[in-house]
Input
Amino acid sequence: MARWGMVIDLDRCTACQACVVACQVENNVPPAGSVDAARGRAISWLRLVPLDGREAHGTRPALRLVPLPCQHCDLPPCTPVCPVYATQKDEEGFVAQIYPRCIGCRYCTTACPYTVRDFNWRRPEWPAPMEQSLSPDVSVRPRGVVEKCTFCHHRLQLARDQARAEGRPLREQDYVPACVQTCPANAMAFGDLDDPRSTVARLSRSPRAFRLLEELGTGPKVVYLSKGEWGA
Amino acid sequence: MASGTGANEGVAGVSRRALIAGLVAGAAIGSAVGLTWSGPPAAVTQPVAFDHRLHVREMEIACATCHAFAPPAPFSGLPETETCASCHAEPLGTSLEEAKVVAASKSGARLAWAPLQRVPRHVFFSHRLHTEAARIACDDCHPAFADARAPPPRVPPIRMSDCLRCHERVGAPTRCTACHR
Amino acid sequence: MLGRRRFLGWTVGAAAGAAVGGGASAGLRALFASAESPIVPPRGPERVVLSVCDLCSGGCGVRVRMVGDRAVRVEGNPLHPVSGGRLCPRGQAALQALYHPDRAEGPLRRRGPRGDLSSFVRATWDEALGEIGARLAEIRAAGRPEAVVLMTGGGGAGLGPRVARRFLSAYGSSNHVALHRGDEAAAIALLLAQGVRTAPALDLQSADYVLSLGSALLEAWSAPVHATRAYGEFRRGRTGRRGKLVHVEPRLSITAVSADEWIAVRPGTEGVFALGVAAAIVGEGLHSKPFVAERIAGLEDERDADGRMRPGLRSVLAQRYRLEQVEAETGVPGDVILRVAREFASAGASLAIGPRKGPILPGRLFDHLAAGVLNALVGAVDAPGGLLVADEPPLPAWPPLPGGVSAAGRARPRLDGAGAERPLLASDPERLAEAIRARAPYRAEALLLLDADPVFASAAPEAFAAAIEDVPLVVSFAAIPDDTALLADWILPGSHYLERADLHTTPAGVPYPLVSLARPALPRPVRDARPAAEVFLELARRVAPELAAALPWKDLDALLHWEMEGLHAARRGAVMGTAFDEAFVRMMEGAGWWAPGYRTAAELWTRAHESGGWWDPFYDHGDWRRVLRTASGRIELRGDLLAPPPAAPDRDGTLALLLFEPLPIAGGTGAELPFLQAILDPGHEAHWETWAEIHPDTAARLGVADRDWVRLESPRSSLVARARVTARVVPDAVAVPVGLGKRGGGRWASNIGANPLRLLAPTRDPLCGLPDFGATRVRVMRARRPNGSA
Output
């Protein structure tokens, strides 16, 4: 079985946030207003987080803005704490979130060291006629459940079904999450980390590759490529 | 029987212990029923009292003739008026129900068929995967129709346990992510 | 044995228990069910429609996924040369604009006081166009067609603005005023240097070293997706070559965050820095001598036609931009200036970019000229990796304009004096506001606003609000009533781009002629809106027969056919296609062949619609007759315009006001869409408010802590914003985003944030007359929180 992972090249990323909005549109995320946003209750499966870069040369900017989706850890801290088995890692490496099982206790949200999980504090609402643009391929979550990045797993289900109907294997370009598809700088790659010929496997072997909070032993499957050095 | 004294003395001639035991038992049963029982499904009426047995068993029309799939959506499609009109543009018999179909095909009106079973939105289900790749016959999952002389007002819903039973038996994926989204 | 008491106990208990248990659990189930959203996205037949996004001027080709009659997803069209299958956050949020709850229901007529949405009542299109058409016909019949003013804004290069402008000219007025001047300063600099008036295109993906002088290259650029795609390739798209980006600005902008080096100069000194670099290059002889000898004029002193000595760039640099002078003025150490000069001059392909910050903020002409000087010195003009000039797509001419009263009207002087009082300007909205109030040289009798909100997005918002009251007929085409629309007499809601057919020409900053085609995705508009182009065609028919003859198309499709047939006749270019197709066409055209992939006009129509449009990917580098039209036939280094440098205004305890446009709200639009309001400042969670970036030293001096409310006061106005104490801005400045602070714009924009354009001093750029958006200084102090905000 494949082991799906993502590579984000910070040397290409311009922090434009197209990925952030694409994810929200693709996954029927309800828009939050200013009040909810001020209370930290806006839902965004993918966020840019500020990281302090190291001052290499004095005039180098000390701020990095890093896209942070769910890392779909190989050893996820969020799955063992779920009392109802609503989140678990499946055979292909996805850390899945099963909304009908979730009871909203938020142990998983607390356990995640990357803080990439969001809780539905209110019933999601779209003022008419905005509900017209909802995608039929993705659930509309109720109030009281946790949600997070799924690596656009619904796209894999559709792509696999299409490949089977056409009698061919799944190709690398058949399944990409919405964020990867839209990135204008082409900074994101996605694929099977266990396939040595895939783009992500190749890029994850780069000397620039690093992962976030690796020291916690979570085994994150999002690999970052650091910004380049002078002329390198 | 003993008329009790002391702790077992009840209220207005009723045993307190039995009262409490009854309350607990009643509450347990009541809650269980209240939480799970959803009542009979609502009755559904169709615009035309379509005779499946005639068309499927006697005329031997294949299910896919009228229920063409729009892959990969789970909805199998209900027939458009043109499909009916391919045979019933003119009356083939004398039934009043057929007359409704003939009228609709002449006027181009849509027949507002009402679906009896719906896949919940949090489930990914591909009809073509099951009918084409897995070669499951339609009435394995939808037994209520092929022999019905008139459209059933209700059918039992297909539950996840029904899907799992077959999936486990044939070795199809049973992990949550195979179907949930 | 069950006694009577026990039996009764059990029975009563069970009944009571069941009632309570059943009731409570059923109630609980109802509670759970109420948590479910009632919205279930329906299904339906699916199809794909190709269109062109117009949420900015970038012109990205898009693919729209339709489920039934609903648009559920917009993605980039992979075959489109601008978007390449990608989209920016604005493009992704397009569906929120399409299905926005606050879109005007239909034509609205004002019946009450100005400035209130409740003053408007519904009218039919027939009523609206009947009355407006009659009024316009009256004005024209009275011999005053010049009294009608058209203001256009930033909605891309679609047919709406083109038809509107043609209507105005045919009608008999030359008062077309463009509100968004983001490309103006760069275009004027190009005009002065090369004699060509257009926004320069940058070949970023082939450059090796980019010196960004305060530009918003990776933010609200003129074609953001195109520029960001090129940036990705510039960094990691070429094996063994990694481009270097150096950004010079008093603020750590988003572009600066991506740069290899951020050089924090004092406010307003980017151009001085650039000329310091130029001085070092010339002084050390590092400029490209063959290129300079062959293509440059004005490096050395010369005698002009009157026999006077005109100082050349060399003397100007040696006199006014010596290392120690530049160091003192910019605050940048001399060794950094020297290093950058040597890097810039010795890199393979270097490119300097001037401070265009967004559709509203063009930057100063001086700074753009300085960038042009650097490019000229290293030969980065019309070369790979350098500054390019896009060719126009060979679209056919439109029918001739009527003469008579129309010609007389067109000949009258423009109200805004652009091209006359201020000869270098194409448009002067602030002067227009003054002229309207002064009623001189004549009275404005009608103002038509297409994608333009001058009461919000000009450098003189209050002047416009006052001026509009004096115009008898004000018509806005805003889909969601904006600040200017609230003051108008009529709102004729324009359709969303997904609701109409359209044709877009080359977006500013893209080097290839392009014609992008859009089909309507929805069978009918969500509200009773119409494409502005069709409204103008209808008005032409209603006003006068000679206008109908000048605009003879009955609808957008007819006009599209006209355009595409002319394009076919030009015998150039090809339909959009894959990378292979692009390479093939380039190769063939480079050898002088035309290999279009279509034969008849009908074939062009079909295949262009299937792929997204037509383009000509072949850029003929070094075609000097096309890109150089100065009198000397050479690139002019205007040393005379570069000395003295602009004077720094007095400090006296104030801070320089640095304005910038975050991409989500650039051009004064975007705040209406909640997904865009939520991403204004990446790395911070709050958003949804106007903030003011203050350096920690300055904040300490002012007694301001992070997230305090502060008041910014200028001689003109004041506003309250949330303080962000950060070292991202130099101590002498305060940085405030532009794009919030609207009164209109619907529930997610209205009364959120504050508009810093109201603070602007009425200073003009001394060289060309554009408003100087960087010349204002403000006093900053702690304040109480503004009313009604979180």
User: Anything to note?
Assistant: Chain A has a mean pLDDT of 91.
